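seq as requested:
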Amino acid sequence: MTSATATVTATHLRQATLPATTDHPRFARNPGVEFDPDWVSSVQINTSAVERRAASLGARRSVKKSYQAAWLLRAVTLIDLTTLSGDDTAQRVRRLCAKARHPLSQTLRDGLDIGSLSITPAAVCVYHDMVETAVEALDGSGIPVAAVSTGFPDGLSPFDLRVKEIEASVRAGAQEIDIVISRRHVLSGNWQALYDEMRAFRAACGGAHIKAIISTGQLGTLRNVARASHVCMMAGADFIKTSTGKESVNATLPVSLVMVRATREYEDRTGYKIGFKPAGGISKAKDALVYMSMMKEERGNDWLRPDLFRFGASSLLGDIERQLEHHLTGRYSATHRHGIS
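struct tokens:
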């Protein structure tokens, strides 16, 4: 039964600065710029200041009641719903795609009074050999398929094979490619090599958008994170992404803050907007709200839409469903009632 406090109206979405619909691309795609070593060497990070700012983000009170529900509904549209397991099967991918088509139960939709809203994840993300299965399962839904590529997760396969893998995924129907960079280029300070590698990956993607995974947990310092982010954007990245989700340390608020500010600096210099994707370890709705708050404060409302912000997640959607059900009924449901695949 719908109550006045449970209903999430367009007013809540609007007052929470979360538009009820997602527009088509609203800005020019980043073509990249010439490599500038002086730009890279000028990038410095005040680590203690970053850590203080990051610590303050999670210590604040979150949005509440119907406004929180509105933010969580928006969070659903920001998820790259992901399965990247060694035991993935075609049937598992089809189930994940079915969940992407209908991420919220009809009971939740009716109770929240959101029947007029189109709420689906931003993409479904799979390994290359599952791209065709996902494309077929999502046909007609408007939900794009993203493929991890370039020897994911370590990026250590021969360079020509990494490029061919991108091309094969695009031919199979992937509209987005999540590539991993060669960490050794960052750790050795070979920024020209990183730039050249990214340019080749960008060219291989053609019309497919490219998300550059810089594997922040393996880069050693926040300065390396910032410099790698800038180089990938110079080379034409559409998104910069924290992690593969396979590292021992994945998305954290300090590295995310550094990367988000790098996108702002890049836009100030070039005029091009770059997206940001934290991935790995974001499995709770409350964490999603913290990241969304950071994006709103650091970059503004434009970065609360899927063309500029994504969550790389496999279990986040289930916890969002539980929180929405609690908002509606006052009770938490069992986790197993919200399976993903």
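The chain has one domain: 10-14+36-338.
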